Structures
1.
Amino acid sequence: MKAISSLIPQLPELRKQTNQPAVRPAVTDAQRQEIRELLADAGFDAVNQGVYDTLITYGSREVAHANTKGLFLTGPAGIGKTLGVSILAAKFGWPVLPVADVVSAFLEVSEADFQNFISAMDFWGVPRMIVLDDLGVEPVPVNRFGTAFNVLADVLDVRYRLFLRYGVRTIVTTNLGDAELVKRYGFRMDDRLNQMFDFAAVTGESRRK
Ligand SMILES: Nc1ncnc2c1ncn2[C@@H]1O[C@H](COP(=O)(O)OP(=O)(O)O)[C@@H](O)[C@H]1O
Ligand SMILES: [Mg+2]
């Protein structure tokens, strides 16, 4: 399989330092409380409060902090990963990209536009945090002009390089376990995932009706 990174050799360059937005200030106790209430209003119980509190903390360190990783949320289907992340994402302005939409974009837009899409560059040309929702449900391989791609493996690779270069982080939700991740994205990627993500297990019974 050909890698998207070979198709897109250039990662975006950051604009001049002076143009960069300020690092987001730390989340205040009042903001934290407000988000907890939003979650409670949506019917979330306290079981996963630790996970979502961690996620709230991520809202305060979106850009280029040393030694802060992205967050990889794992857990069975129907327990509110997508809902919970979306509530926070709306609050903090993180784009939530269902992986199926990422694959559609890959098939439908130019390489340059796809690169911008997965870099989620802001007004200043600075790549941003994104949420990749439901990693593992996308088809593999995907054929584009007769070439086979593992689209999300390549997207994770690009996000890894953004992480190394700019400290830009990614949030992932998935039902996949370790073995399935290795099988789908390979050993090398598994190593990189450990480097670029903290892992958190969301628990509970399916709430899907
Ligand atoms: N903890 C929860 N409290 C209330 N509703 C929930 C909870 N978890 C999930 N739901 C509901 O169940 C459905 C599935 O949730 P979703 O976020 O898609 O789960 P996941 O992403 O973990 O598969 C949604 O309709 C959501 O509104
Ligand atoms: Mg989901």
Note: Residues 6-10, 14-22, 62-66 have pLDDT under 50 and may be disordered.
2.
Amino acid sequence: MLNGADIATIIPAFNEARTIGNVLRAVRAAAGIREIIVVDDGSEDNTALVARGEGTKVIILDKNMGKAAALLEGIRCTDADTLLLMDADIIGLTAEHIERLLEPVQNRRADMAVGVFSEDVIHRTMPFLSGLRVVPRELICGIPDLYDAGFGIETLISRHARASGHRIEEVLLDNITHLTKSEKFGTGRCLSNKCRALWDIARSGLRRL
Ligand SMILES: Nc1nc2c(ncn2[C@@H]2O[C@H](COP(=O)(O)OP(=O)(O)OP(=O)(O)O)[C@@H](O)[C@H]2O)c(=O)[nH]1
Ligand SMILES: [Mg+2]
């Protein structure tokens, strides 16, 4: 590692008790991470309990605010200059995946690294949707009106990074996947959550920079 980047991990989590424990153990085992912050805003399961059981700092918001707001609340609680954004529903995550994702930024080849699940068609074709990324704090904090972006936050970060000339590297990650919305929520709730996500992504893609 060449760069002494000061890295905090922010994990937005909504009803992820099934998977967050392994995600936290993988992050904790990875080299170079100073701090881990989980943001839970209204989970109806034991997400916060499991995260606390892993010794992690958990921020609880009074009501559900969406993914972007949760991430931003987490970022407000750290002064780290580099942020590892991580989803809580990842299956198969290891410390090695995380170290591979950090490497391009630590070695100053890239300003932002985006993790791409190598076996996932959506990730491969639309890497700008990936929730696994290493991002400079100044990039995220420089994006206006991000709080209400919901599931569009990654699209906006990628668009702003490109527009402002940040060097982006995609890192292919093997043997890793995530729980789908239908596995998490069942058909009805999955459908409304999916529509919400598509709407957030569409408006983030169309927004004037
Ligand atoms: N705190 C918080 N976290 C959220 C919220 N919505 C989503 N997340 C988290 O953001 C991460 C990704 O959310 P998912 O719903 O799995 O979205 P996705 O993986 O992009 O989409 P799918 O392919 O449909 O699974 C997970 O860690 C979720 O728990 C929210 O409203 N609040
Ligand atoms: Mg998911």
Note: The chain has one domain: 7-206.
3.
Amino acid sequence: MDFAFDTTPRCVFREGAAEAMGALVAPVLPHGPILVVTDRTLRDLGLPDPALASLAKAGYEAVVFDAVTPDPPAPMIERAAALARERDVGGVLAIGGGSVIDTAKLAAHLALSDRPLGDIYGVNRCTGPRLPLVCVPTTGGTGSEMTPISVVTKSDTEKMGVSDPVLMPDMAVLDPRLSVSLPADHTAATGVDAMVHAIEAYTSALRKNPVSDALALEALRLLSATIHRAVAAPEDIAARGAMLLGSMLAGKAFANAPCAAVHALAYPLGARFHLPHGLSNALLLPAILRFNRSAAEADYARLGEVIFGRAGADALIEGAARLGPDLGLPTQLSAVGIGENDLPVMARDAMAQTRLLQNNPRPVGEADALAIYRDAF
Ligand SMILES: [Fe+2]
């Protein structure tokens, strides 16, 4: 056995943590100006307000960047970094979903770097430090608060990852109250994303390790026991807390046993058709489990038992196929505006995701990707 395990060093889980944000972040963020990264929807909902009030009271000057858009485009991320530089902030705080956190992670690094974002796509391409960084997730899905990865929309058709130890946040603050306003469809899609993180970590080909395995199993136990309740009863704080905890554990798992073909094949759906990331994963999960089965039989059997209470790869594959419809999500690519003629170019695009594809338990070529898209169509 040979593995290393890295994670965000500090995690605070507390209902109402937002109201104590100023004191909670004090060991990490120097007092003075800090960049607070969020998005317009959350700002209009007033979601960051309790944290902003607490930060102000504790002596922080929040420089708010609320222009984050889903599937964060590279120029937007560079604008966030430019604002951090202009205002000479001493740290970065993200309050939001995966797009917000991914933007904040890169802004914290780019603010101190003279290299453009275009130079650092891929694995271990960053040079130099980043600003102190705290991430506060508002969805039970991304797990990005625990990973050294940010995903960027590089062009009109391409999403690319930046994976580098420097992007690992210093601290995560999980407050279940911050996710109660998440609509049902987003709760379902981001929850399935978290489950896919844990499933892909558990079967990761290159860096599967016992710590990630343990975290992935616990994440799946929590997420599968809770996701239906979180979707049906949005104000259920216990369910929201379990989803946040599950997605955080899954994030720790896949930060060290990276994701694979579900994510690789999902990226073209986000880049070309602007489908939400979690929904893209949910649409592809059953077809990829069927494709991988011959190479992952034993692991899938264990996951079937943990997630659906019945041992066997069949239990996992059948249960995963029921998950989308049970949660009210679309289940076929043809139902979300994708045409059959789009599939070949998506398969070609997916081949660029070598960072992810190399972790798949079964090799995926372009013809395989096309067959998977057809299966999911
Ligand atoms: Fe994901």
Note: The radius of gyration is 19 Å.
4.
Amino acid sequence: MTRGYPSAMPTYQRRGDVPRKRHIQFRDNGTLLTEEVMGLEGFSGNESILYHLISPCRVKELGNFEPIKREEWVPDAHAHRHMKTIGLQPEGDALSGRRLLMWNQDVEISLCRPAEPMESYFRNGEGDEVVFVHEGTGTLETIFGDLPYREGDYIVIPRGTTYRFVAEGPQRYVVFESEGLIEIPRRYRNQYGQLLEHAPYYHRDIHPPNELKTHRDRGDHELKVRVRDGYQTYVIDYHPFDVVGWDGYVYPWTFNINDFEPITGRIHMPPPSHQTFAGRNFVICSFCPRKLDFDPMAVPIPYHHSNLNSEEMIYYVDGQFSSRKGIEIGSVTLHPSGIPHGPQPGLAEKSLGATETHEFAVMCDTFHPLKLTKLAKELDEPDYAYSWYEERGESHTYDQDPAGATSHL
Ligand SMILES: [Fe+2]
């Protein structure tokens, strides 16, 4: 959760052609190129330096500004929530199809099932993005080069990155957007930035853009930029990916949830052991198949807990969730702050002796309360709040994987 020393991006990268030193003449067919320093935290954070054929300030036409509208749903009662999202209908593109589910001042969490290709290019000018790809493959075309993605990828897109999704087949995303930086947790890195031996992933698991393509065509292109809580459209008369080379620490990258190395203990390990990303007042965690707690007296599912100043949102990605009532692939649970949560009646007893779990889930814990949208109301399963109000074992179904969805609750 700390901003600390520059840690946003994995390592130094270079693509295409760059001059031998910064800030010296660099030409393409005799034309002096436009050097752009794209940096964070003034001139003190990470940066990349890009060399453009055309000034990135050049605008042919200022288009519309569309403010972002959020339709809040304030439930009648403060309670645990379960939303089923698998039936969400595809709509819009990879940007316009983002449907906000919950948000606070630090993070916006949206679901997205794009129905059509992105015609415009997009840049988030006020936030970092992490797109979890639940279903689908494709390429994120970016100003830094092509970034292929596949099912299970987290696509990490720093602010300022101009991009376009080019999807192959049906897609299903969970999108996190934040005004703050989204980073690799500081405790995973040494003072030089290298990932430590105890970190659950390594630099080899991080995939930067693989190929820079310099576009020289001069036709009109539409560029949308998220700024000031809205979308500003610009028309430019050149291709936005006009970079002949870049280097630095700021660029988009992917990390696949299957490459997260789970940490297991003799007794129960807390959620921070699953942390994947650090945001401003929130974390994103990955729950992956793993051996469960192995002490003979261990209770391999979590104790009840009151996260007094945290909210816990979990998106269920894959696995057998039948031991948790009603949970299915695409389910979202929200266990809000101020009230305790834990396994439902009988599950702790049933879990004894379980040795492994086969589930995947993505969790976002926030320090500030999350507001819900009308979409959350549409998808809400109101019975969930009463799922602890049962006699032990009543109406639960158990399979051979009794740790089930509760293993990461
Ligand atoms: Fe929890």
Note: Residues 1-8, 396-403 have pLDDT under 50 and may be disordered.
